[in-house]
Amino acid sequence: MKVLLRNPRRELDIPGPRRVHALLNDLDLNRESHLVIRNGTLVPSDEELGADDVIEIRPVISGGSL
Amino acid sequence: MKCRVCREPAIIDVPRHNANFCAPHFLDMCRKQVVKAIDDFDMLSKDDRILVAVSGGKDSLAIWDMLIDLGYEADGLYIGLGIGSYSDVSGDYARAFATERGLKLVEISLRDDYGYDIPTATRATRRVPCSACGMSKRHLFDKAALDGNYTALVTGHNLDDEAAVLYGNTLRWELQYLARQLPTLPARNGFPKKVKPLVRLSERETAAWCVVRGIDYLVDECPMAAGNRHLNYKDALNKIESQSPGTKTAFYLNFVDKVAPLLSAFALSDDLVLAPCNSCGAPTTGEVCAFCHLVKTASAHEPVPVELITGRGARRR
Predict the structure, then answer these.
(1) What's phi and psi for B219, nearest 5 deg?
(2) pTM for the full model?
(3) A60 CA to chain B: closest CA distance, Å?
(4) Does the beta carbon of B20 lie under 8 angstroms from any beta carbon of chain A?
(5) B25-to-B22, B45, B85 alpha-carbon distances in Å
C-alpha cells in the first residue's frame, strides 16, 4: 500500500494487508495523535488495509502559542 | 468495529469513551460535548455577538462550523501573522471556509496594520517565536472583540491544548496562570468574555470532525513552532493516554472542577494593579502594554523572512 505521511511530507510503500493499529505501531506513531484516512474516509484502528490501498496518515497535533 | 449507537460500521474509535462511532453518531457525540461545555461553563447564549478567532487550522474552523451548526451567529477573525507561505495558505483556508458558507471574516494583517510580522518580531525581540505570536494574537483578539462590540470571543483551544498548558503550569506551579486556566473567562477590566467550547474534545476528534464534515484546513504545522515545549507536553500526555485512556480528560476537567476554585485568589490579585496603557488604552500592569512595546521594537527592525529564523539561513540568536 502507499502511505502518505506529513511533517515532513513523504510517501512510503508498505506491504499489505495489515490492520490500522499494526501500521501505526510499525511506523512508531501514536493513535492518539493521528488519523488514518482511506479515499477521504476515516478508518478505525481494527480496519484491515489492503495491499492496493492509498492511505493518508494525518497528524492532528498543533502547537505554537496557546 | 461497530458504532456504539446504531451498530453500523464505525469510522472512528474513541478510546477515552471506550466507544466506536459511525460518521453521523460521531458528529452527534461532538455536538453533545460542545453543548455540554457551553452549558456547564456558562459560555454562550444565543443572544451573544460571537467572534471566533480563526487560524485556518482544524480547531478554529471546527468550532466555527459547530457554532453555526448549533444555531449561533458568529463572525470570524483572522490575523495575518506574516509567517511566509504558511500564513498565505492559512489565510486562504480561512477565507474559503467563510466564503463557501456566507460568513463574515474580519481580517487584520500584522505587517500592513502594525508594520511587523512574527519572524521579524522574533528576531527583534530575541525571544522564542511563540512568545511574540501569542502576545500579538491575545492583544488583537481582545481589541477586535471590543472594537466590534462582540460580547464573546471564542477560541479553538481543545482538550489537548488545555491539558498541555495545565501540565506545563503544574510542573512549574505557576499559580497565577493556573488560576486563570478556565474554559470561560468573564468580561472584566477592559477584557472581553473569552470562551473555549472545544475543551471537552481532543484534537484527534476536532480533526476527525473536519474530515467527516469535508472542511479543508491547513494540516501542516507552523514552521516556527518546532521544538515548542507544549508539543513536548502533548507528546508526553499522549503516551500516558494511549496506556490509560481518559487521563487527559480527567486531568483537565478535574482540575477545573476541583482545583481551580481553590486558586481564585491568585487570579484576582493581578486585577488590582491593571490600568490603561498610555499608548493604546488596553489594560496593563505597566505604563505601556507589552503589545505596544513589541510594535515599537519590531516595526523599527528591517523585515526578516521566516526562512532566516527556521531554515538554513538561521543563525544563533
Answers:
(1) -80, -35
(2) 0.94
(3) 6
(4) yes
(5) 5, 25, 37
Interface size between A and B, measured as CB pairs under 8 A:
101
Inter-chain contact A30–B238, Cβ cutoff 8 Å? yes
- Residue B251 burial (CB count, 10 A): 18
- B-facing residues of A in 26-65 (CB < 8 A) are 30-35, 37, 40-47, 58-65
**Full set of structural domains in chain B with CATH:** 44-310 (3.40.50.620)
Task: Report how far residue A16's alpha carbon sits from residue A20's, in angstroms, rounded to the nearest whole number.
Answer: 11
CB pair distance less than 8 Å for A6 and B157: no
User: What average pLDDT does the segment B117-139 reach?
Assistant: 93
Q: What is the pLDDT of residues A4-28, one digit of tens each?
A: 998 888 999 999 899 999 999 999 9
Domains, chain A, in order of start with CATH, read 2-59 (3.10.20.30)
Give Cα B73 to chain centroid, integer Å. Answer: 19
Selecting from A9, A59, A63 the residue whose C-beta is nearest the C-beta of B230 gives A63
- What sections of chain A are H helices per DSSP? 20-26
The pair phi, psi for residue B51, each rounded to 5°, is: -120, 125
CB contact under 8 A, A65 and B130: yes
8 Å CB contact between B272 and B278: no
Q: Is the ipTM of this complex over 0.90?
A: yes
* Single-letter residue type at B130: C
A64: nearest CB among B130, B206, B208:
B130
